[in-house]
Amino acid sequence: MTVHETTQAPPSGDGLHADERYVVRDPRQVRALLQALIDQRATITALPDGCGQSFPSAVLELGEDSLVLDGSPVAAFNRRAAGAGFLLCFAQVDRVQLRFRVERPRQQERGGYVAFMASLPGEVHHLQRRELYRLTTSLDDAPWVRVPDPAGGEPLRWRAADVSAGGIALLLPTEQTVFALEQLYTGCALELPDTPAITLSLRVRSLVAIRRADGTGQLRAGLRFEDLPRGADATIQRHIFNVERRRNAKMSGNG
To answer: Taking the CB of residue 123, how many other CB atoms lie within 10 A of it?
Structure first.
């Protein structure tokens, strides 16, 4: 497996937000989205300087022109965050992904816990709709992904949470150390039911901490397909179409 590591995230306004249609810059709308993170007690995935290992956080307070983010119980993460030029943050509001960065976080001690104060972000990437239809999978029709083990062992294998013609999402333990944001993983395979495995590369586009109904945490990894062989995208779309057709037939009583 070859891993290409991103050592620095792109500066604000220069590649961080790939589609201007989904960038919110109005200060009132930015505040409303951040307030929604507080109201929904949303977990944030914070990435110091946009690279390396992330840690879970949350928006604790909103000031007139500042915000306060929760720190980590792990001192090493707090040291990295305190020394970072910015924190790249990922979260979800109403199942819609948000992405923003806060500049020059300042560490504070608040009643025995660590927090970080920073200026309000100037913009928030608010992905209002998906470019490609995504199929939520079930146990009997889910694709699987194989990724070479970085330690040289047997390939790692995960069931997909959803799939589209352009990528796939996995639900992983929060302590996973395999995937890092924007890294490219080669020599992977996508296994579709009744179809030979498709060899491809996977690029990590998002890592978002989520909380299940039972209170346990998971990490949702969004992976983009790269280096697809010829005809593979049509094979993936055909799988999605066939699954949807079977589900619709079952719902109508014809399956």
So the answer is: 19
Q: Which CATH architecture fits 135-251?
A: Beta Barrel (2.40)
Same fold, 8-126 and 135-251: no
Burial class (CB in 10 A: 0-12, 13-18, 19+), 100: buried
Euclidean distance between CA atoms 222 and 33, whole angstroms: 21
CB 185 within 8 A of CB 202: yes
CA 2/CA 184 separation, integer angstroms: 7
What are the extents of the domains in the chain? 8-126, 135-251
The rounded distance, in Å, linking the Cα atoms of 215 and 153 is 32
> Do residues 5 and 47 lie in contact, with contact meaning Cβ atoms separated by under 8 Å?
no
Domain at 8-126: CATH architecture: Roll (2.30)
Distance between CA atoms of residues 249 and 213, nearest Å: 30
Sign of the CA dihedral running 172, 82, 107, 86: negative
Q: What is the DSSP string of 96-160?
A: EEEEEEEES-EEEEETTEEEEEEEPPS-EEE--S-SS--EEP-TTT--EEEE--TTSSSPEEEEE
User: How far is it, in rounded angstroms, from Cα 34 to Cα 30?
Assistant: 6
Q: Is the pTM of the predicted complex or chain greater than 0.90?
A: no
How many angstroms separate the CA atoms of 51 and 40, rounded?
A: 27
Q: How confident is the model over 208-246, as pLDDT tens digits?
A: 888 877 878 888 899 999 999 988 887 888 888 778 777
The 10s digit of each residue's pLDDT in 44-78 is 988 898 877 788 999 999 998 999 999 999 999 99
How many beta carbons lie within 10 A of that of residue 221, not counting itself? 23
